[in-house]
Amino acid sequence: MEPLERYRPIIDDFEAFLAACKRPLGNAVRINTIKTSVERALETLEEDGLEYEQADWNPRVLRLETGSPGSTWTSFHGFTHGQEEVSAVPPVVLDPQPGERVWDSCAAPGGKATQLAALMNDEGTVVANDSNLGRISALRFNAERLGATSLAVTNDDARNYSLNRFSFDEFDRALVDAPCSCEGTIRKNPDALDNWSEDHIASVAGIQKGILRRAVQATREGGTVVYSTCTFAPEENEAVIQHALDEEDCRVVDFDLGLEHAPGLTEWDDETYDSSLERAARIYPHHNDTGGFFVAKLEVTA
After folding, report:
1. 50, 154 in Cβ contact below 8 A?
2. Is 230 an active-site residue?
3. Which pLDDT does position 67 carry in this prediction?
4. For 257-294, what is each residue's pLDDT tens digit?
5. In 25, 91, 219, 264, which residue has its Cα 20 to 30 A from 297's Cα atom?
């Protein structure tokens, strides 16, 4: 937990934060409305004797009382998908609409990409990309199991992603759930901080900046880009957004979120960020008994 001490000045009730980070994370699933309705999924879980608690902020997200959510009848038949509760936040913030063209730049293993397809009623196109070829098989498997027929899977570096293969030259919306230092996953992965270093944060931040810039460039004027990570480091969050604001035509916009959260930062160490970064959301483990997450919503302005 020592690396997390650097965040003591910015986190409310830091001792509660540390205590939450030390508690194991419960299991959560997302109801896949491509294959079923919320009501039918709940009935099926009840028939199987599985206890659940619906998330207040999203009726499609359940905290499930089972040690193996991937082994249930509902999972096997694609009614549910094991997905950490806060992991379901970015697609909801992106708010894709049926018929749109949406890019998930870092999509494997497919939880958010298939959620995007479900939010769009599986109508339109979700381009699910990942640079890691080894993870593409999991992405394809989940897309097939969940019945997401609107997905197109690609394997490329998102930083220089080409749209030449498509019949269109821009997206309506883009999701950048960026590879990160994963500090916020410590409840699920107790060894998440074992190889932590500020050098690693700096190196991954460079990748994040490239992916976010490409997402803004590839999205139409007036379109939406959502940036998210499962880490607390401002270098990977606010600083990455600030870089996009400095280099691309975009602005940070407000969004409603039914989960307790802290606002984004406007300063860290010797760095200052645009005041609009307060519109971003920092979700800490002690706020909602979840993992940690950062989410920001951008509008492309030209």
Report:
1. no
2. yes
3. 84
4. 999 999 999 999 999 999 999 999 999 999 999 999 99
5. 25
Question: Looking at 48-52, 64-68, 225-229, 255-259, which range is the least confident one?
Answer: 64-68
Is the whole-model pTM more than 0.85?
yes
